[in-house]
Amino acid sequence: MANSKNILLIMGNGFDLSCGLKSSYNDFFEWRKNNLDRIIEKSGLDEKTFDEYVENEINSIGYKKNFNEDLREKTDKEYLKNNPITRWDCVFVLVKKYISPDHIKEWNDVENVILNVVTFLLVNDKKWLNLKIREDQNKFFSEEVKRCFYSKKPLENDKAILSKRMLDDLNIFESNFANYIRGEVHSNELYKISARELIKKLARRGVKEGEIANVDIFSFNYSLDADQRRSYNEYFERTNCNLRINSWYNIHGIVESRHMSMKKSNIIFGIDMTDLLDNNKQSTLTNTLLNDPRIEFTKSFRIISEHVNLLRDTALNSEEDKIIIYGHSLNAMDYSYFRTLFEMFRLYESNKMALELYYYPMNDTDTIHTEERANVEKLVNLLVTYSKTLGNQYENSIVDKLVLENRLSVISTGKENEYNKIKSDVINDIKPIIEIGNKKGDSDLLSPTEKFLLGTVLSNTKPDISEWTDNDLNSFINKWKNKGYMDRLINAFKKNEDILKNFKELADFIGED
User: Fold this and answer.
1) How far is Cα 339 from Cα 40, in angstroms, rounded to an integer?
2) Which of 227, 232, 461, 509 is most buried when burial is the number of CB atoms within 10 A of its CB?
3) Which of 506, 513, 485, 477 is nearest to 189 (CA)?
4) Is residue 288 a part of any domain in this protein?
């Protein structure tokens, strides 16, 4: 029996971004703003943008205020039906308006804003935790956030009622985000191929020829899930990759699941359990959790209440040889997950488990050393936080131990992301087919059936593939896969070995969902 390596692959949003999916909060808010601005423009109101609309209406926002009813009568009913405006949409408009210019990039940090708002409204409305609001505007910002969620009827502002109101609106906000991600996944045929190839590249790195890589995937993303595991494994087996995905778990849910007991969208935003403890250091653990009204907004609580655990179809391996972290910012919001995983696999006690952090160099080569240093600092902070759970004798030694045992690596992914690489590979595979199609008038080369099928597949595409946009390429792949042209072309060209080879190679690489 061949030797095997067990690998835990932890995926952050940087994984999806590297594979060509526009999955950042910034991408979502841009999509949201474009649609809401379009609605405001068509509504006939004096305001030109949704931000202006919120700012002008904020004084009258109360529990009975319903943006959707007001605007639905004037404009796009279908969009507002599927993606209703929420109080959280208004909160993010206010954060962007009032946040300090030095921290403007933080306005769309969704989970940190949630932590600050629920803490302010449910625990302490005298100050903000770490939102850097301009000092001279703090009072206005605080009052306007209250107006987003408070009712004009004092009895309806009881903390239990207020908490439910905030959580109900958060569920809708999450559903809107799920709708956006689902649309991006469905319109990007190359994304799943890029993700498959990146998993293969990461899993096979450092694994000897002939060894089998058994991979457990622990994903913070909402896009791919355990259903994809099955089709990927079929491809890996068919192409003799010596690679198998053992389990796949989306810790914060998935935008679309075939699980019979799941809702269509089951994703969660939330706060880390340690945030509750850090902000209540004077209390005991039990009293803090029992009495803290924010408990319903923690990720752990919501994973249980939203039944996200049902998405896990198999368990992790009991032992791992390597932990790979790809595309995760290592922010404090997710520290508890990393701490639990490190404890589960006994990172400190092990003398063989390697830990690799991959990061994408966002800036130019002049700052690459600075970026590497910043990512090393993030990893060290994470490890030191984990070591505090082991006891004082280990607190300052875990990083030294991993370095001395050659078990710690911080690796740049390089500037070229996986999506661009896969796009280039697919275009090279398609190019001979385009050339064949452009010669379709040559009766000696193609039969009538072959001409017809090839002409149908290449309809509405540009003769010069170098002019194709991402939409052209995705449309071509979608037609091949979803309308059955792959099999029909392979069958039609079965007597033409040279051309058939191109079709088979492309069909195998594109694969099936």
Assistant:
1) 46
2) 232
3) 477
4) no
Judgement on whether residues 357 and 209 belong to the same structural domain of the protein: yes
- Residue environment code for 234-261, b if the CB has 16+ CB neighbours within 10 A, otherwise e: ebbeeeebbbbbbbbbbbbbbbbbeeee
Say whether both 473 and 333 belong to one domain: no
Q: Report CA Rg, the chain.
A: 26
Residues 420, 402: Cα–Cα separation, whole Å: 34
As a whole number of angstroms, the distance between CA 134 and CA 248 comes to 43
User: 118 and 175, same structural domain?
Assistant: yes
Q: Find the domain containing 198 and state its range.
A: 4-20+188-268+306-412
Residue 74: inside a domain, yes or no?
yes
Cα–Cα distance, 69 to 85 (Å, whole number): 10
Where a domain ends, among 129, 164, 183?
183
Q: Are 405 and 351 in contact (CB under 8 A)?
A: yes
CA distances from 106 to 14, 151, 457, 497 (A): 17, 28, 45, 57
Q: What is the pTM of this model?
A: 0.87
- Per the listing, tokens 């049902």 go with 310
Q: What is the pLDDT of residues 457-508, one digit of tens each?
A: 777 777 777 788 888 888 878 777 766 677 777 777 777 776 777 777 777 7
Q: Both tokens of residue 67?
A: 């943006």
Nearest CA among 363, 254, 369 for reference residue 312? 254
* pLDDT of 74 over the 80 cut: no
**CA 145, 149, 151, 154 torsion-angle sign:** negative
Domain match, 344 and 220 both: yes
Residues 195 and 25 sit within 8 Å (Cβ to Cβ): no
Question: What is the tally of structural domains in the chain?
Answer: 3
Q: Is residue 275 part of a domain?
A: no
44/70 same-domain check: yes
The pLDDT of 331-348, averaged and rounded, is 87
